[in-house]
Automatic annotation (TrEMBL):
This is Peptidylprolyl isomerase. Gene3D superfamilies: 3.10.50.40, Porin chaperone SurA, peptide-binding domain. Residues 320-410 form the PpiC domain. Residues 1-21 are annotated as: Disordered. InterPro entries: PPIase_dom_sf, PPIase_PpiC, PPIase_PpiC_CS, PrsA_foldase, Trigger_fact/SurA_dom_sf. It holds the Pfam family SurA_N_3. It comes from Phototrophicus methaneseepsis. The chain crosses the membrane at residues 48-70. GO terms for molecular function: peptidyl-prolyl cis-trans isomerase activity. Keywords: Isomerase, Membrane, Rotamase, Transmembrane, Transmembrane helix.
Amino acid sequence: MAKREQTTGRPRRRTRSEDTSVVSPAWLDRLLGHPRTRHERDEAINTLVIRGIIGIVIVVALMIGIALFINQVVIPSQPVATVNGEAITVREFRDRVRFERARMTQQINGTVSQLQAFGFTDEQINQQFSQEPYSTWLNEVNFPDQLGQRVIDDMIEDKLIEQAAAERNITVSEEQVDQRVNDFFGYDPTEVALIGTDPTATITPTITATPFVSPTPTSIPTETPTITPTVEATLAEGETPIATMTLTSTPFPTLEPTATALPEEQRATQEALFDDNQTAFTSYIRQQANLGADAIDAFFERLALRNALEEDVVGDQTTTTYVNSRHILVETEEQAQEIIAALQAGESFSELARAASQDTGSAARGGELGWAAAENYFPEFRDAVLTLPIGEISEPVQTEAGWHIIQVRDREDREMEETEREQISAQQFAAWLEDLRAENDAEISIVSNWPDYVPR
């Protein structure tokens, strides 16, 4: 008979398998809270996973929130440029680029539609858009950095204008802003109101040739062009017409006469066209640039302030100095000195001009430029013809075109036409602005990474 197992009467000890943890390694066991069963372990793991997911979501949300805060609050508030301590913010810069891109796109589309209406072929339209200002419009629309560079320069100029206007206590009224709106859309309420009351025949504008030495171009905001077909003027090579746009002559069919509308109908048509143009412009800017009425209002306020400051700086000029002059244009100062020596030796000015002048247009006429407003010339050339004694041969005068030998035949003050007055005033104001920027250059700074902020 087998020997009976002895007992102590105490509870039996758990076997080794019962005493072993259900989780290993030890760090994971501690992380899960020392689960004693597989069920406890699974619940602990699920809880840990849920907490981990929640934590990741919170971290991702924080990162997205921080990124949005930086991109929509911090960066837009940073300066892209400063002018005399006043900042131009990234937000203002971006809005302006979008506005200008939409404005130019509308100008391009409108111009193409008008050219097509005048019977231009695709080839003629492409040729037209290879010329200024159309080629610049296309380049700026297609190359964001080029548009951004022009916009940042314009905004710096606008800031200088604001500061100069404030120093001169110049402000603009609602009426002045409305006038800029009317001018932009080619609407003259006074002229419209006089329809049917003024029997004077409508005067057809003509192109006036500008002398060879053309004024330096300026970056004045371009207004929406109203294109009318014009006959090409016969100009000597090197001369440019004053008209802002010159379209290639294209034969048009003879239109059958139509009944003349009553004055009331004509006025209503002009007013409706003005309203339609305004609505179309506003709608296009809002859709394409995602900007509201404030941006459009600011655009016309800038034009009004610029015009008010121009009037204050330039003054109300009604006359300008015209000069009747001739010149010989050469490439180097040494060549100019040789021409002067030949003139002093008795050689003919006209023959030397025909033989040596690089200005082939005036060279064919013996160097004659004829009568022209002095303000239409390069600044150095202008100063020379305004001060040179009548009949005297100048020392060599350097301009962007080269070296000139100049002789003034006569000089006199003349009344200016309105278009000429506006052109000369704009040139003088542009020169004043250029000097103003040069004076303030040390107080103007542009961040080096500004291209990063140009909307694409």
